[in-house]
Specification:
The structure holds two protein chains of two kinds. Chain A is built from eleven helices and ten strands. By secondary structure, chain A is of the alpha/beta class. Chain A has a single domain, classed as P-loop containing nucleotide triphosphate hydrolases (Rossmann fold). A six-stranded mixed β-sheet of chain A has the order 6-7-8-3-9-10, sandwiched between helices. In chain A, strands 2-1-4-5 form a four-stranded antiparallel β-sheet, with helices on one face. In chain A, helix 4 packs across helix 5, helix 5 packs across helix 7 and helix 7 packs parallel to helix 8. Chain B is mainly α. Helix content of chain B is 77%, strand content 1%. Chain B has 18 helices and two strands. The chains are: A alpha/beta, B mainly alpha. The interface between A and B is medium-sized, with 27 and 21 residues. The complex binds adenosine-5'-diphosphate and magnesium ion. The site of magnesium ion (MG) has 4 residues of chain A, from helix 2. Chain A: Keywords: ATP-binding, Nucleotide-binding, Phosphate transport, Transport. Chain A: This is Phosphate import ATP-binding protein PstB. Chain A: One of its GO terms (molecular function) is ATP binding.
Chain lengths: 271, 494
């Protein structure tokens, strides 16, 4: 009974969000690593306050597409992006856009937990300090606490904020990285296989967290696992050989996909 | 038979053993290699090892032992009055007998018999064959030389037979051991392992030997000069030591030399650390792959320049340049063109040494900065940090322990550096703070004390060993501490 109503609420939320416009719009996005082309004219829109899952076999360009959304590809030698991507109404590849500011708005969580070799507190406070988000120590304390709470880590670490972030377990480290991203108050959070290095219990915790974060953030997540995509996302995009094959409601995607290749992939015929 | 020929024969037996062993294993397998425990080559190697190693071991032992045995046998045959002479004289006699024996081999049988009849011609005859003798040989020497030759020949023949038999027997033994279930691979690898262990022990034992020999000399120095006068003495004035004189006293205070060493090293680090570190940051974080591929090898070429060349550079270019420019400067300020920087000075030596150290600092730090995982960089950039913020707040703090380790290693090079300071620092052992004046270092004084006519009995020369071992201990401590830090830093990322 309870389950039903929760699902119903979710549906309603989805509907409402669907009425609201797209958070990010990618148009004819192509990416080249040197001479090698990794993405072919991808058109993919990311809905606000929605979890969008990117799936597809290894090497199909999921991470590459994800990284175009906050221009992390800029840090790779010889990588070139064409096409147009907007965040709200701003073209993020416009030379006038400050990439630093963009990344503050579009945060990222990586495949392997990568806390800085600093204390837990300093890890979370890193972004706010850089962007001058806190006016006082008390402010900063509040941001750190709030972020850790949002990442569901506060109760586990509140007594040892000054201890090293690298001393946490893998799952805690990943949630710390999520807290670190959340602390900058981004609008979009990108996650590249955030659970691939975690055990099932830690994975479940992170998935639950993604679910909760959806209320405040727009989330794009790359995942290897069909089940995970089904569990956490509302929209799913399937990539294959650098092409976007299909983008659809997650429910539909996993029950009745439009494209044969999606069907094959989901049935485990390649990948 | 000569030793090299013998070795060749053993090697041939080994090769043949290898072939036979492999062939035998193949034959046993009968086309089904999987029925063998090891691949046929291992059986072959097993036979080869058994035919060669024992034979060579016997050869080595014999080569060392037989001259000792023959020597004592020959000396045992000396007449009693010769045996009563001092050891040194006996050694001279024995050497002469060796020379005569060598000479005998060049003579025909008749010539030799003639010499036995008339010993007085011996010196002349042998001299004409290219074997000079220091004096006319006593008659017993000729007999002894003859005995020596006979024994040597016998020994050599016996050795040849023994070695060949050992090689054949070893090979046969190994050959008989070959069976499909025989674990040839494990045996062969065991021998390999022993070989590797021997190789590494040689390196370690050599180090131990060097330290031990330095230590013994240093100890005999400390028997003449009290240790505390050396370690805490503030005057370095070893005086001139006449060869053989052990009583000429001097003062051997280490402190002024150590002060010079540390001061010059400090100036060098002052130059090398910032430049090297900035170069490393640029190379690892900013330089495009193209720039990096050109600039990094160029920097490392600097590390390959022999330090004597830097010494030249200091002596011929930098020193005079600093002196002249200081003269110009003081001329401009005071009107008196007196240079306040001397050509040989702490500054000159430190500056040039600093240049020498730049590539060490930069390439070590570059490795360490590059070893900071890309994930940390991405993490910081992904939060909207700029590149320089990322370097300042994430990469350098993460790399800091490693960089400190690298700097310590560099410092130990600075302390041990010799050629630059010999040419550029001066020889005056003084304690003072003016970097424009010459000072001297531990290494310079070692060179000084060991130059010229040497006799290792006076404190004037033995002090070099005390200085050497002090230097060794300092650099060893620096290096161990550096390694410790670097290792701890490595663990952080594992
Ligand atoms: N830094 C890079 N340099 C060159 N090629 C890359 C780089 N990163 C990814 N690629 C290539 O781009 C393609 C897509 O990679 P990626 O986006 O990582 O795939 P996915 O995340 O879907 O497994 C692959 O063929 C990969 O080899
Ligand atoms: Mg990927």
């Amino acid at each position: 009974m309870n389950m039903m109503s929760e699902a119903a609420v979710e549906k309603a939320l989805d509907k409402k969000m669907n009425d609201i416009s797209y958070k990010m719009i990618g148009k004819d996005v192509s990416v080249y690593y040197g001479d090698k082309r990794a993405l072919y004219d991808v058109n993919l829109n990311v809905r606000e306050n929605t979890v969008t899952a990117l799936i597809g076999p290894s090497g199909c360009g999921k991470s590459t597409f994800l990284r175009t959304l906050n221009r992390m590809n800029d840090t790779i030698d010889g990588c070139r992006v064409t096409g147009r991507i907007t965040l709200d109404t701003d073209d993020i590849y416009d030379p006038a856009i400050d990439v630093v500011e963009l990344r503050a708005r579009v945060g990222m969580v990586f495949q392997k937990p990568n806390p800085f070799p600093k204390s837990i507190y300093e890890n979370v406070a890193y972004g706010p300090r850089i962007h001058g988000l806190a006016k006082s120590k008390a402010d900063l304390d509040a941001i750190v606490e709030r972020s850790l709470q949002k990442a569901g880590l506060w109760n586990e670490v509140k007594d040892r904020l000054q201890e090293g972030g690298t001393g946490l377990s893998g799952g805690q480290q990943q949630r710390l990285c999520i807290a670190r991203a959340v602390a900058v108050s981004p609008e979009v959070i990108l996650m590249d296989e955030p659970c691939s290095a975690l055990d099932p219990i830690a994975t479940a915790k992170v998935e639950e967290l993604i679910h909760e974060l959806r209320a405040n953030f727009t989330i794009v997540i790359v995942t290897h696992s069909m089940q995970q995509a089904a569990r956490v996302s509302q929209r799913t995009a399937m990539f294959h050989l650098g092409n976007l094959v299909e983008e659809n409601d997650t429910d539909k995607m996993f029950t009745n996909p439009d494209d044969q290749r999606t069907q094959d992939y989901i049935m485990g015929r390649f990948g | 038979m000569s030793i090299s020929l013998l070795l060749l024969i053993v090697a041939v037996i080994g090769v043949v053993g290898y072939l036979i062993g492999s062939w035998r294993a193949n034959a046993l397998a009968g086309g089904k290699l999987s029925s063998l425990h090891s691949r046929p080559g291992y059986y072959g190697s097993f036979v080869a090892i058994w035919s060669m190693l024992p034979a060579i071991a016997i050869l080595l032992v014999w080569i060392i032992a037989s001259p000792i045995y023959i020597g004592s046998a020959v000396r045992g045959g000396f007449p009693d009055e010769v045996k009563a002479e001092p050891q040194a004289t006996q050694n001279l006699n024995y050497n002469m007998i060796g020379a005569i024996a060598r000479g005998f081999k060049l003579l025909s049988a008749e010539e030799r018999d003639a010499l036995f009849k008339d010993g007085t011609a011996a010196r002349e005859v042998l001299g004409s064959k290219g074997v000079p003798l220091a004096a006319d040989p006593a008659p017993y020497m000729l007999t002894a030389a003859d005995d020596l030759n006979r024994m040597t020949t016998a020994s050599s023949t016996f050795l040849s037979i023994l070695v060949v038999i050992a090689a054949l027997a070893g090979g046969a033994f190994a050959y008989r051991a070959i069976a499909p279930k025989f674990r040839a691979r494990n045996r062969v690898e065991g021998v390999m392992l022993v070989g590797l262990i021997v190789a590494s022990s040689i390196a370690i034992l050599t180090t131990v030997g060097i330290v031990a020999s330095m230590a013994t000399e240093a100890i005999s120095f400390f028997n003449m000069v009290p240790a505390w006068e050396f370690f805490f003495g503030t005057t370095w004035d070893p005086r001139f030591a006449a060869a053989g004189a052990t009583d000429s006293s001097g003062q051997f205070g280490l402190i002024p030399l150590l002060a010079g060493t540390l001061y010059i090293g400090f100036v060098a680090m002052l130059v090398a650390v910032p430049v090297g570190l900035f170069a490393a940051i640029y190379m690892s974080e900013y330089a495009s792959r193209h720039v990096r591929s050109v600039a990094k090898p160029l920097l490392e070429v600097l590390a390959g320049i022999p330090t004597i060349v830097y010494g030249f550079f200091a002596l011929v270019t930098v020193g005079p340049f600093l002196r002249d420019i200081s003269a110009q400067l003081s001329g401009l300020v005071t009107g008196n063109y007196a240079s306040f920087i001397q050509a040989q000075s702490v500054l000159t030596a430190g500056f040039v040494m600093g240049i020498m150290l730049i590539p060490y600092v930069s390439s070590l730090s570059d490795d360490i900065i590059t070893a900071v995982p890309r994930a940390l960089r991405d993490g910081s950039l992904g939060l909207g940090a700029t590149r320089s913020e990322t370097i300042k707040r994430v990469i350098l703090p993460a790399a800091l322990p490693g960089i400190v380790g690298a700097l310590l290693m560099t410092a130990s090079r600075a302390v041990g550096e010799t050629m630059i300071v010999v040419l550029a620092a001066g020889v005056a052992a003084r304690m003072q703070l003016n970097p424009f004046e010459p000072m001297t270092t531990v290494t310079v004084k070692i060179v000084n004390q060991l130059t010229g006519d040497l006799e290792f009995t006076s404190p004037q020369t033995l002090v070099a060993f005390a200085l050497g071992i002090t230097l060794f201990v300092i650099t060893l401590c620096l290096n161990i501490y550096a390694l410790y830090i670097v290792r701890k830093y490595r663990e952080q990322y594992e």
